[in-house]
């Protein structure tokens, strides 16, 4: 079975246009293929953070974060050039200042673990409701915009 690399992009709501997001997704796939082989595939999820709900150095921030899953125990000499290329790609398409992006390339097992921690923090029946809301938002976004997106507050 072909595995897909997960990319979580947390952005301030309405800060990155939908057309740019689609271009970034296409170019991110090209980056993965260039760095990790033609068989690479990705799933990108855009996490919308409402304006005023992100802070950096005690001030409202517009900084985006990108968490890219990569092969477990990928050597540093492969990880760093990949991260640099992700940063360059982001800045080419968004024209955002370089200090408004944080990129990490984490082992896929670590990314799965972080996601499971987030999912498991809600228990019982509420967990099912939260998961259904997430799925509804992701599917609605994919149908409407062509990319997977959800609000961090699940309020939509």
The run of helices and strands is EHEEEEHEHHE
Share of helical residues = 40-55%
State which percent range the strand residues make up.
Answer: 15-25%
Care to count the β-strands? Answer: 7
State the end-to-end distance: 34 Å
Q: Numbering strands along the chain, what is their spatial order in the largest sheet? A: 6-5-1-2-7
Task: Summarize, please.
This protein is α/β, with parallel strands linked by helices. It has helices at residues 18-36, 76-94, 108-120, 124-145; strands spanning 5-12, 42-49, 55-56, 59-60, 64-70, 101-107, 148-151. Helices cover 47% and strands 24% of the residues.
Written account of the structure:
The protein contains four helices and seven strands, in the order βαββββαβααβ. The model has no long low-confidence stretch (mean pLDDT 91). It has 156 residues and is an alpha/beta fold. The strands form two sheets. The chain has a five-stranded mixed sheet with strand order 6-5-1-2-7. It has a two-stranded antiparallel ribbon with strand order 3-4. Strand 5, helix 2 (76-94) and strand 6 form a beta-alpha-beta unit.
Write the layout of secondary structure elements.
Blueprint: E1 5-12, H1 18-36, E2 42-49, E3 55-56, E4 59-60, E5 64-70, H2 76-94, E6 101-107, H3 108-120, H4 124-145, E7 148-151
Parallel strand pairs: 1-2, 2-7, 5-6
Antiparallel strand pairs: 1-5, 3-4
Helix pairs in contact: 1-2
Which key phrases capture this entry?
156 residues, alpha/beta, five-stranded mixed sheet, 4 helices, 7 strands, 47% helix
